[in-house]
Amino acid sequence: MTTGRAAPIRVLLAEDNFVVREGVRAIVETQDDLELVGTCGDLPELLAAVGDTVPDVVLTDIRMPPTQTDEGVRAAQQLRREHPGIGVVVLSQYVEEGYAVRLFSDGSARRAYLLKERIGDVDDLVHAIREVHGGGSVVDRAVVDALISARTRRSPVDDLTAREREVLAQIARGANNRALGERLSLSSRAVEKHINSIFAKLGLAEEPDSHHRVRAVLLYLAATDGA
């Protein structure tokens, strides 16, 4: 019987800047558990390459040809519909809160938003790739800071009761409603009641359902310094 290590994570890179593309290529190729299966420089090439290379994770710039606006986010949204098992790490030159929210608008699983400056930190980039491949998500801390600085100095998290803050802390740790109820000894009805109250107090009640948990967690992390 032959045994061996797990197959490497197949990474497809979409980046039109040659210097950034080669830098990321070098990082990926130094990791034993990552395999670069292709590179491309615009959105049409990226979508075509997904079918040709069957990647596990797409690592893409947020702005690429043809419009140099939001190609990375649009790619992530299309892949969510057509290839939900593929993870996507979006890289941005600057903090763009609106794009970050859109990236997570249909769920946070298998999605990451990083600033390009993180490319210089190999651990940050590699961690994001591995995390989305495993079904998790990563949000750059700078995005959290930008979201909270755009609001009033006092955080809406301050309006939560002690119990609601406990519930939100569990959500931030990735607990679903069932796990949350078990950890805090709450009935499913009580969990739903607390969560609805949290969303209302944080001003999230009118947003699409898929935004709620991501935005709530971002506000919680910003208000508690990640505690």
Automatic annotation (TrEMBL):
GO molecular function, one term: DNA binding
Lineage: Bacteria, Bacillati, Actinomycetota, Actinomycetes, Pseudonocardiales
Coiled coil: none
SMART domains: HTH_LUXR, REC
Organism: Pseudonocardia endophytica
Alphabetical list of PANTHER family matching this protein: TRANSCRIPTIONAL REGULATORY PROTEIN NARL-RELATED (PTHR43214:SF24), TWO-COMPONENT RESPONSE REGULATOR (PTHR43214)
Keywords for this protein: DNA-binding, Phosphoprotein, Transcription, Transcription regulation
Sequence ranges assigned to domain HTH luxR-type in this UniProt record: 153-218
Domain of life: Bacteria
All residue ranges annotated as the Response regulatory domain in the record: 10-133
CDD domains: LuxR_C_like, REC_NarL-like
Residues modified to 4-aspartylphosphate: D61
Protein's name in the database: LuxR family two component transcriptional regulator
Any single GO BP term: phosphorelay signal transduction system
UniProt cross-references to Pfam families, sorted A to Z: GerE, Response_reg
